Amino acid sequence: MLTMKNFEKVEFPKEFLWGAATSAYQVEGNNRKNQWYRFEQEEGRIEGGDRCGMATNHYELFEKDFDIAHELNHNTHRLGIEWSRLCPNSADEFDQAEIEHYREVLTALKQRGLTVFLTLHHFTEPLWFFDSGSFSRPGAEHDFARYVSRVASEFGELVDFWITFNEPQVALCGWLWGEFPPAKFSLEEASRECAGRLRGHAAARQAIRAVLPEAQAGQVCSVSEFEPSRSNDFLDRHYADLFDYMWNECWIEGCATGWIRVPLIGQDEDL
Fold first, then answer.
1. Which tens digits make up the pLDDT trace of 210-245?
2. DSSP letter (8 states) at residue 158
3. I need a surface site. Which of 7, 110, 181, 239 has the fewest CB within 10 A?
4. Directed axis angle between helix 140-155 and helix 187-211, to 10°?
5. Which residues lie below 8 Å from residue 169, measured CB to CB, with a gap of 6+?
6. Whole-model pTM above 0.85?
């Protein structure tokens, strides 16, 4: 039995990382050039008609926010960078003013002694990329890698850990379950998007390592348990296993082994 006396004896190592995490779109405010902004404007998409809008205006108030983190004795912070701000119109066109803004943001974290985790894809994508098919489009990973390479070149000395994708399996929410953009209900298209995101992770990691050979780069995965509604029903067991693979296992397997194995589209591909 755990008691307060037990907890008093718990000691964490000095290098243990304590902190919080944010998504650029969810806190910055006024992000208008990605698919989530457009999705929110469509009637009936979001319960109550809510919109992100200015969010918490972190774009302008980031220093005050980081002061709060420092006062709370955080020693690390995980934040996202908004791809649609850096590349609003194409893969090859970068907004220098936004590059300088994010340099100020990352420098502010370092000035407060915080270890920096930087997320490169946290759900949102520039409209030009999303409208072309997102990661389900052949070759999309190269556009992603160009963006990642520039970020690594610009901010390499200010980032301690790199996160290519936050919860890449959330692709199923948009491409299979219709709850997120693009609001589709296709297992085949969801499979193609998942395979593309695995390619995107591999390409991004290679782009980071080309600039920063010793960089630590990975994904953040949300692991969930799937159980059949009726344990004695073959189809229920089959679909529970399928969703477990697509939500959990294929991402872990892809990173661990370097192979894509995604249902329906017949891919067995070396990353």
1. 999 999 999 999 999 999 999 999 999 999 999 999
2. G
3. 7
4. 30
5. 194, 221, 222, 246, 247, 248, 251
6. yes
